[in-house]
Every structure is written in C-alpha cells, then in structure tokens.
Design goal:
The chain is built from 17 helices and ten strands. With 382 residues, the chain is α/β, with parallel strands linked by helices. The longest helix is centred in the N-terminal third of the chain and has 24 residues.
C-alpha cells in the first residue's frame, strides 16, 4: 500500500512539475505587461497593458526581442502573431512620459529605450518568419513600429493610425523616416506634419496595413492561422487574403484623402517647411487652411527635423534611418520641446505647449545640423 501511495504521489508531483514547466515555458506571468506563448504553429505576442492602451515600455521591449529571436530560429515556429489586449488599442505608442522623466533626471533609460526599441523595429523588419500584426484599435508611434515593418498587417474597422509626434516636440520615429516617404505621393509627409488620423479601411488603402478584416472575424482569423500545419508564407498569405476578400465593411468607400491627394502632393513638394507653409497659405481652400492651423500648433523644431528626416530617409535603408533617428532621439532628449510637449499633452493636459524657439525662422540650419550629428561610439549600430 505504501508503495502505491508513493507512486501516486510521485505521479502527481511529476504532473505538477510538468504544469509548472509549461507555465514557465509559456512566459505567461499573470500580471505580465506582455504575454509570450507558443500556440499551434505560431509564437504569439500579446501586449497586455490595456489600462495604458498597451503603451510600449522598456520592460516589454526587453521581453519581446529575445523571444522573437528564439522563435525565428525555432523549426517548430512557423509564424509570429502580435496583438493587443482590451479591444481599444493595439498599441497607442511608447511610454514617453517615463522616458521624458528619465531624460530630465539624466538616467540611462532615455538612451536604452530608443536604442532597444529601434533594434526591435529592425528585428521585425529582418525577421525570417512571417510576422502578422493584428492592428485592431489605436495604433500610433511605437505601436506602428511594432507592426509596420512586419510582413503582414491586418487592420479592422476599429483601427486608428497616426504619427502625432510633431505635436509633442518629437518626430515620427520607429522607422518613420523609412516608411512614410514610401507611401503614395507625399501622403507620408502630410501624415508626419499634421498627425492626421486614418481610420478603418483607410489604414489599408493608405498602405499602412496589407489586409483589412472585419473585427468580429479577427479571433476566427487567428484560430485559422494557428491551426495551419507547417505553413509556408504563401499558406499564411492565402488565409489572410480569404478573410480580406470576404470583408465588406466600407468596401466601396473612397479613401478619405483621395480628393485632396493632388493638393497634398503639391503642398509637400516644397523643400523647406517655410515653403510648404507658404504654398498652403496661397492655396487658401478650407482644407488647406485647416491643415495650416494644425501645423502652426506643432513644434517648429520638430517640423524642420521631420522634413529633413523624411527627405533623407527616402533614399536610405531602414537600418540607416534608425541610426539617424537614434541621433535625433538623443538630441530631442537634451532639448526643450519634447519635455514641454509631454508636459502639455500628457501631464498638465492644457494642450498649449510653449515651444522654444517658438518661430520657424529661429530654428537655424546650424541647430538642425546639430540634431543630425553623429554620436560617434554611442551611435546605434546593427
């Protein structure tokens, strides 16, 4: 009897050990800010900070990057899916309030965050496994960096895309200098300057997403992807295409900026921010004046940085762009406008930042060159 009892106890211990091992392997910490799981044929990354609209922080970057690299090498993992919890947001951006506080206190976090975030953006771009981002809900800034460089990006009618950085004294980073100038015509320049929000199917039409799926079908799509047996990239693309084709929401709705695209292309063909503003003033149409009003609220320094970033980025590789953007990020950390933008938009929420300099004329070419200067041994390298 004693022996049977020991065997039973041993078996139950073995079961417990297997369960614990499984829990450890699946990296699912109950309160984890990011959940990393192997499901079916895929590695699944779930951004799990719904109260903060899944904003990305350094801890999350440090969990996602090594796991992405492991799955990329794992012969049993055929695709990688990234999604957000809570239904409101995929990822509303980087947790910049914390970054601003760290920079003001001269802490290393403000270097590490951008360095490691951009390294992750590059890893997503060069990932050898198909990477599927389900960009349901708000997708801005850092959330765009987690998705747009991947092979497949699936938008829904609830998707909301924007790069609003010029309004907080920053610039459209996470590779914005690479993907924005590659959108149709001068659309990327317009989105970068104004922080204009694209919604639903427009996120697909603009070329930010590769597919559009009705949100109520999203969990079925995920199940179908997970159920694939040793899928090729083509098998994955077929599943996405099937769902995309069946999606009828706003199917015949014209792109929200379609009627303005010719104008956008001519406005943003100016070589300086001053020229662009002059062209907008001369246009005088209600849409032009509306955009002018928005642009005039943005940080003058950010506008000048952004125009040069996109112009230079249009002929650079993504890695070259990220190296350039890391230089810019560190210059912004040491400047005035980023911290003032964070204060006005996220802390005091008075929405009236006091930019320094407050006038475009006062942002000199010399100032601008300093933002783009090499950091020598501290440069971001790949």
């Amino acid at each position: 009897m004693r022996l049977l009892e020991l065997v039973a106890r041993f078996n139950s211990f073995k079961r417990t050990d297997i369960i614990l091992q499984h829990l450890r392997c699946s990296h699912m910490e109950a309160a984890g800010e990011v959940l990393l799981e192997r499901k079916g044929c895929a590695g699944v990354i779930t951004l799990n900070r719904p109260k903060f609209l899944n904003a990305l922080n350094l801890n999350m970057v440090r969990q996602i990057y090594p796991q992405l690299k492991k799955w990329e090498q794992d012969p049993e993992t055929f695709l990688i899916i990234i999604k957000g919890v809570g239904g409101k947001a995929f990822c509303a951006g980087g947790d910049i309030r914390v970054v601003s506080e760290a920079a003001k206190a001269n802490q290393k976090l403000s270097q590490d965050f951008f360095r490691e975030e951009y390294t992750l953006n590059n890893a997503i771009d060069s990932c050898q496994k198909p990477y599927v981002a389900l960009i349901h809900g708000i997708t801005m800034g850092g959330g765009v960096g987690l998705s747009v460089h991947g092979q497949f990006r699936v938008a829904t009618e609830k998707s909301l895309f924007a790069m609003p950085e010029t309004g907080i004294g920053l610039f459209p980073d996470v590779g914005g200098g690479y993907f924005l100038p590659r959108l149709e015509g001068k659309l990327g320049y317009f989105l970068a300057f104004t922080g204009f929000r694209l919604k639903g199917r427009d996120v697909y039409t603009a070329g930010i997403a590769t597919h559009f799926v009705d949100s109520e079908k999203l969990s079925m799509l995920e199940e179908d992807l997970l159920a694939l047996k040793s899928p090729s990239k083509e098998n994955i693309a077929d599943v996405l295409e099937t769902y995309h084709t069946k999606s009828k929401i706003d199917q015949n709705k014209p792109f929200i900026l379609e009627e303005h695209m010719d104008k956008i292309n001519s406005w943003f063909s100016g070589n300086t921010v001053e020229q662009i503003i002059e062209i907008l003033q001369q246009d005088g149409s209600s849409f032009a004046l509306e955009q002018l009003k928005v642009i005039n609220k943005m940080s003058p320094t950010s506008l000048k940085i952004t125009l040069r970033q996109l112009m230079e980025g249009s002929s650079k590789t993504l890695q070259e762009v990220l190296t350039m953007e890391y230089r810019l990020s560190q210059a912004c950390m040491g400047g005035h406008d980023f911290h003032e933008g964070v204060r006005a938009v996220l802390i005091d929420k008075d929405q009236s930042p006091k930019w320094k300099p407050a006038d475009l004329k006062e942002v000199t070419d010399e100032d601008l060159n300093n933002y783009f200067k090499s950091l020598g041994s501290k440069d971001l390298k790949f």
